[in-house]
Amino acid sequence: MNKTVNQKAWFFVLPVLLLVAFNAFIPLMTVVNYSVQETFGDNTFFWAGVIWFQDVLHSERFHAALGRQLTFTFTILAIEIPLGVAIALCMPRRGIWVPVCLVTMALPLLIPWNVVGAIWNIFALPDIGLLGRTLNGLGFDYNFTRQPGDAWFTLIAMDVWHWTSLVVLLAYAGLVSIPDAFYQAARIDGASSWAIFRYIQLPKMKRVLTIAVLLRFMDSFNIYTEPSVLTGGGPGNSTTLLSIDLVKVALGQFDLGPAAAMSLIYFLIILAMSWLFYTLMMRNEDQ
Amino acid sequence: MAKITLSDLRHSYAARPIRDDDWALKHLDVEWRDGGAYALLGPSGCGKTTLLNIISGLLRPSHGRVLFDDRDVTDLPPDQRHIAQVFQFPVIYDTMTVGQNLAFPLRNRGVDEATVKARVAEIGEMLELSGMLDKRAKNLTADGKQKISLGRGLVREDVNVIMFDEPLTVIDPHLKWQLRSKLKELHQRVRRTMIYVTHDQTEALTFADQVVVMNMGEVVQIGTPVDLFERPQHTFVGHFIGSPGMNVVPCGIAGGQATVAGHTIPVANPVAAGDVRGRIEMGVRPEFIAFDPGGLPVDIVKVSDAGRFRIVDTRLGDHSVKVLVDEGTEIPADGARIVLRTDNTRLYADGWMIGAGRDAGRGDAGQGDVA
After folding, report:
1. What CATH superfamily classification does A56-281 receive?
2. Chain A residues closer than 8 Å to B83 by CB
């Protein structure tokens, strides 16, 4: 049988190719383009080489923002993952309370991000907000617009409130997929609750937890809207996370070159760390 | 090691059982001797697994008691009953090695490390897992995993009974046979009481000394494989065991014997017509019917080849009767006549064999033999 040779099949991949090009590749290349040029306005550009990259990498301002970003991300991961697993373990596995719990859990995820920021901003206002008033009434000196510690506390509380549900839902999905026979066998083997968690539930949740950690890592590393509405990066620069700093450089100061270089470094950090997380968590899968 | 007594056992999953159908287990009074190999055989939904979970303590019966030897264990949780169970789908602890899996029940009970090591080595040897004790358990094949599940039961010295809930479901056909012989061999070696739940008659009949046949939440017969074959106490047993199943033909009674389509057929359990009520049937297995010029005239409907023997579909009056003959046997073309072996032809009333007494089939397993 003779094979007909033609290349028309390539047209089938064309739509996807165009989509990816306009959606990701061309915008990214624009940023790459800015990152190696200098402009003084008038839409004229000069070749600048890697100078913006050097600047950003040596800038104390960038280091500080990166430090704050890492602190924020690892703090919320350290709270949300264990808390999410704990809540998922407490949820009923069958019965009429299942849908009630699931819907309640999903509610925070349905609220638009800037609304979450606004809710918490008002909620935490020291003079009229429920949280702020209560804390001050209890004798705490709480003011998130003036004191960096309070701003951080509010920021983290907001993120935990907003996103723990995601971890809960993923962990719960992992838990309900465990057949009853595993629990029955464990009971017969005389396993303690801890042993059941350690040797049955945790291994079975591993895949979904990997996804949860990755999603929460990427999302929290990219977070912009909520802290921007809540604190706007303040007081001072105390809650200026990477994305907030980037917007300040790009749109506030309109330093296109440094902002582009910073975006690329930002992007590479997320990429590298996601890869690291994934590799570490999946390390033992195929042994 | 223990004798197991189920006394006046009933169970329903409904909170307030009203109708007869609400009961998953209708009524059970059974005694199983120590060290026996039992099979619970029945179609899906007949209550086998319910019964198994009641014995293991995963379920508490709505009514009745469970005794191990003479100790009432009805209210004890599974880990205090000293039992082991192998489930339909292999249960292994993914993150552990084969050896750690086997050691798990011992370590949970605080057994000292030296004993754990010795027991794991011994059981590993017994199950032919010695070479892979340090391998990750999750990478084994399904039959290897089932061996681990079984091993976790065998590793404890104090196990009263090991239960199997359709353990060969996910095993490849060519390995099923191997694992089944292995189980049988292990039973002879360790002499623990074993209860094997299955809906596969071959598995039940090859594994067990005593087979408990269940249907619709009740035990219809307990007996040796030969009993079930030669002396089915209930037409259900006749149907369910054997391939093809027993011929069950509606009949009348005259002079103590069965009458079908105007012919009188002598039976092993003759009874006076006035002594029985209900639906009367005559049961005889295809194996116990032969072509004979001196017998009852039948019409041959169909002949099917089934390897070493042939199944002949015949009609006796309005009733279908299957006859099993050896491969080489000549089947008469016209005027075929059959003879039913009297010893193996019985009368049944409402499904139950006449003259056996319903209790005989449900009592002590050791006395299941009711000729």
Report:
1. MetI-like (1.10.3720.10)
2. 188
